[in-house]
Amino acid sequence: MEEDIQPLSEPIIAPIKTKDFDIVDKVHRQVMAYDYLEDSFQSPDLIRNVAVLGQLHHGKSSLIDTFLSYTHGISFDNKNERRFTDSRKDERERELSIKAKPVSLVLQDSREKSYLVNIMDTPGHPNFFDEVVAALRVCDGALVVVDAVEGVMQGTERLIKQALTEGLSIVIVINKIDRLVVELRLPPNDAYHKIRHMLDEINEIVSLYGNLVENAGSRARRISPAEGNVVFCTSEFGACFSLRSYARLYIEMHRCKIPVDQLARFLWGDVYYNRETRRFQPAPVGEKGSRTFVEFILEPFYKLVGQAVGEEKPQLEKTLKQLGIYLNKKDYKLNTKQLLRIILQKLFGNTSCIMDAIISYVPSAKVGNVMKIKRNYVGSLESEEAKEILKSDPKSELYINIVKMYHLSLIHIS
Asked: Are 99 and 113 in contact (CB under 8 A)?
């Protein structure tokens, strides 16, 4: 064939082997009807656009797996089936994310109110930082995932700075808290100080760049579990909790009359519980008094994980009975990871605590759209086009903000 009549779609020298980077996964049916998800796009007030950020191997993609396990009923017990958003062959082979991937899910908060959440799963490797920048341009908030053992790293600081530069609110997800028990075997008091030091580092970063970055404004808030913008998670076992969700669980279990929000605030900081007076106080009770976060949260968590890992079936059954958790006989024959996954999911429930943090700190798509237009739109805000965009009306003309291109073989989750 002559070169001048050869179609442009055909290369002059054809490759010996056509490269295929994508893995075609089977499409999983959602728990909720797909029509409900589609109709949710017509309600901007009920939409949240969130980017998942974090250092390499801190558990971002496995956090998305946790969401999918509840919305699509997907089991990720097999290691080869994990990291659903890593849909490229090279991502699976290298075990790291290379491209930012969008996922749209219907998630519920603690009141069982449903929201449409558009999530961007971003790479953690610094070589793919451009993917993070592109993802943040279409998001209104960010979940910053931090490994409980490795803590705040240079990449974490860089990601927080970029999120603040884009004027976004951040919610901290302290992931892999099970490693504090199983790997480091830190005493509960030491684990508390490690987590607190980690949050102090994050607040220093937020304070520094929040003051330097012009767009940050009121988005740079104090990061604290008591404020509701910190969530504790173990994505390996598909469980997460916040102080508020833990306080609600404790009140339901012990039938306390204290308000949930009040108990949640007592569960962090230099607060101690006096069992004699049955009051919370700022001073320790005796020389070996433990803070409420240690006494009410870490010590029971350590006990539960320790009994499951140590295969102490009689003690574990007794502990689970006190928690109102009953397992089948076959569950006790599972390996430690599968058993602990079942226990923690039954104890902490779904991912509603993360949704509560997102709803509280990430603006809706309607509010976020106005913020993005005022910050990034290069045309006149007095033009008819700009006014039309600022309305955020689903029935008006369609305007597209292109930040990233995807090839045709990308498989969407539906």
From this structure: no
The reported pLDDT for the residue numbered 63 is: 93
For residues 116 and 362, the answer to whether their CB atoms sit within 8 Å is no
Cα separation values, 205 from 44, 139, 198, 326, 361, Å? 32, 21, 11, 44, 18
Q: In whole angstroms, give the CA distance from residue 360 to residue 22.
A: 36
State the pTM of this model.
0.90
Q: Is 166 exposed, middle or buried (0-12, 13-18, 19+ CB in 10 A)?
A: buried
Distances, alpha carbon 256 to alpha carbons 122, 245, 252, 266, in Å = 41, 14, 7, 14
| Torsion angle in degrees (nearest 10) through CA of 125, 130, 135, 140 | 100
Q: Please, which pLDDT band fits residue 133 given cuts at 50, 70 and 90?
A: very high
Is residue 158 within 8 A of residue 208, CB to CB? The reply is no
Q: Which residues does 85 contact at the CB level (< 8 Å), separation at least 6?
A: 61, 64, 97, 101, 103, 121
3-state helix, strand, coil in the chain (%, to 5): 45, 15, 40
| Sequence-ordered list of residues with C-beta below 8 angstroms from that of 79, at least 6 positions apart, any chain | none
Return the exposure string of 70-103: e unless at least 16 CB atoms fall within 10 Å of the residue's CB, then b.
bbbebebeeeeebbbbbbbeebeeeebbbbbbbb
Which tokens hold the place of 235? 């994505």
Q: How confident is the model at residue 349 (pLDDT cuts 50, 70, 90)?
A: confident
3-state secondary structure of 238: coil
Strands 114-121 and 101-108: antiparallel
pLDDT (0 to 100) of residue 217: 44
| C-alpha span between 121 and 60 (Å, rounded) | 7
Between these two residues, 70 and 294, which has the higher pLDDT value? Answer: 294
Burial of 349 (0-12, 13-18, 19+ CB in 10 A): middle
